[in-house]
Design a protein that fits this description.
homodimer; 417 residues; alpha+beta; Aminopeptidase; Alpha-Beta Plaits; 2 domains; 9-stranded mixed beta sheet; 5-stranded antiparallel beta sheet; 16 strands; 33% helix
Chain lengths: 417, 417
């Protein structure tokens, strides 16, 4: 379904220009790599703050390196509706993942500013400093600092060149002894709304430019190790084998089948596998692989993990293999606040699009922001569902659609009663 | 079944001593690594030639580095029954794979020599210089040189440090311009018999110290590459995935099932797999894996390969993946000569063991020797079927049993009528 109403102003072209301008700030000349606390990261922050000021906002860098812009409401000091996303990237990234949410929010504020429109609440736009967690072994550093849940022990973490986060912050011009100053009080925020590319193919399959997020799916990651008996590929009859890779293959097929028959958004992925010794003519004696299970409902995910582990145990037992299986990562589902999600849906509808709800399988800063504010998200369609890749792409018309929905949401926003 | 006849002399203790002496000659102090044309290889050759001379044989190194011992028959210059195996090893090898066949043959000749016994034919014992093919990308170099099928272009091949085989031969003291001098005429050989450890678990499962080999199984190796679509492990619903690893897993399960239901010694192995990009949270977009298919009957193997390829094609089509599949290696089955195999079986029976016939799934020098001589093989039980590993082990009593069968075969040997 396409828009029924012509836009009052065209924000899409400005958004695409700025996406491209930000994409040019990279560690590498031929790809996009913008890592936490690097000179590129700093240059990107300056560029974003300039745009914020052009849009009538006060802008500053907070204690962790988040870019913070504030557009006062009808009178100074009102609680704010916070918008935002992150401005760090993965290595060899796409240009839309993160920046689209920041740049679109600034474009909306700029539109209000040009019209001289003030609202009965403040607007803040946050460019989170580190969502991807590429440099140090920890994600959501920026939003955690704002939510007051930043773990100070992370400052001791080192990047792969041996630089500690503590020193990297000093080099960036920040004071690592006062990260706590970035924390905001829940009373300052009316809610947190993030616009982000979907990073999946669902909106494209549904032929919709935008989607309303219901929850950020919780995830469990498992590390599995199967041990059998290595042997010569020619000399061990099939009946005498304890082939760890054949066992792992049966597990992978079972995981896929289990998730495919689910109707509630459960997804399961085996992304990594290693067979040892890994020679053409040797039966693998040991295989390690990972499992990533996500669901927008924690109870479903936990049941699914238990069922999958049980199936693996059965396969392993039948094949006389041994099993080691460990949970390496677990995070709970972050549901979008119904009252706020409803306003997002109303804005989508008001702009002439069909309201389509979907969970976010990927993690976002809302996972940290939930600790101080109700959270909602608006997804924008991306081509082929491709993300974390140079081919990541959003059509200008979809960027425009996202901006119009966000602007409508802002203008119609009613704080929770 | 155990031996019914007490051995005339005990050869097992001497064999085990010499196995251990040869195992001490290694590139590494803490494991066994004896690679073609290295100083260790040379030292091993000298040690073996000394044992040959002690056993009453003339011994020399031939043009490719094979150790050649000759025990004349009732008169000089008679055609010979050739015995042997290889004295090179894989890296971090066991001590029995190869050396057992050489050392046992020398022990048998030594026994005849001590008794002053001459036969109506000569005996030759060959220690083949390179069966494993670890150093240069080519196996069976020693036996091919003797069979006159050595490919001179192999001399240009380089090892991983960049040394060409040509230069390595010169450094070893050989003349690479005259490898052809190693070739033997078919008329000089009455047959080739190799004693070797089974390298598999069948004799152990059958509780037999020795087995009569029916054929060296032919093999086909395939390289498979499946391509789907990489994607975020959280954002792509199961129904929209084109997961290359899930597809590969289904193929691996199908290969195993196909081979397991076969009743004629077909074996199929996937020993290597790589999933790209290989991250926990990314659906694999590309997977490569290998398939190794072996059967003692070439026609069966070819049908099996065709059936397996067809199954893979069906899986790939149903999953909307793309497939590249290539044969990387193929060698035909080498059947043991019925007349010679029969004499091996008679020797087994004469020594009091049940005659049990089995194919060799592993390759051996007989694969090259078949071009100039009829071939037979005797397998000796090894513990757990383990080979190409430091844990490779043969019991002294089984080494003794192998020697007694080989000695009986030699003494009762009748040339093909």
């Amino acid at each position: 379904m396409e828009a029924k109403v012509a836009p009052a102003v065209s924000l899409g072209a400005e958004i695409v220009d700025r996406i491209n301008a930000l994409a040019a700030i990279s560690e590498m000349p031929d790809n996009i790599t913008r890592i936490f606390l690097t000179p590129e990261h700093r240059a990107a922050a300056e560029l974003i703050m300039g745009w914020m000021r052009d849009a009538g906002m006060a802008a500053h860098l907070d204690a962790i390196g988040n870019v913070c812009g504030r557009y006062e409401g009808e009178r100074p000091g009102l609680p704010c509706l916070m918008l935002g996303s992150h401005y760090d990237t993965v290595r060899d990234a796409g240009r839309w993942d993160g920046p689209l949410g920041i740049i679109t929010a600034i474009a909306c504020v700029g539109d209000l500013h040009r019209r001289g429109k003030k609202l009965p609440f403040a607007l803040e736009v946050t460019g989170f400093a580190d969502e991807e967690g590429v440099r140090f072994a920890s994600t959501l550093l920026g939003s955690r600092a704002i939510a007051g849940t930043f773990d100070e022990s992370a400052l001791g973490g080192k990047d792969k060149t041996g630089i500690r986060m503590y020193e990297a912050m000093r080099a960036f011009g920040l004071d690592p002894d006062h990260v706590g100053a970035a924390a905001r009080a829940p009373s300052e925020l009316l809610g947190y709304v993030e616009l982000h590319i979907e990073q999946g193919p669902v909106l494209e399959a549904k032929k919709l430019p935008v989607g309303v997020v219901t929850a950020i799916a919780g995830a469990t990651r498992l590390a599995v190790e199967l041990r059998g008996m290595a042997g010569h590929a020619g000399t061990v009859p099939m009946a005498l084998r304890r082939d760890a890779l054949a066992g792992a293959a049966e597990c992978i097929v079972a995981i896929e089948e289990f998730c495919a028959t689910d109707r509630d958004g459960l997804v399961g992925t085996v992304g990594y596998i290693n067979a040892m010794p890994g020679a053409t003519n040797v039966i693998p004696g040991m295989v390690s692989f990972t499992i990533d299970i996500r669901s927008p409902r924690d109870s479903y995910r936990k049941l699914a993990v238990a069922d999958i582990v049980r199936q693996i145990e059965e396969i392993v037992k039948r094949r006389h293999l041994t099993l080691e299986i460990n949970v390496t990562h677990e995070n709970r589902t972050v549901p979008c606040a119904p009252w706020l999600q409803k306003q997002v849906a109303e804005a989508v509808k008001a702009e002439g699009y069909r309201v389509f709800e979907l969970p976010s399988g990927a993690g976002h800063d809302g996972m940290a922001m939930i600790d101080i504010a109700d959270v909602a998200m608006l997804f924008v369609r991306c081509r082929g569902g491709i993300s974390h890749h140079p081919d990541e792409h959003v059509d200008l018309t979809d960027a425009e659609a996202g901006a119009r929905v966000l602007l409508r949401l802002i203008e119609d926003f009613k704080a929770k009663g």
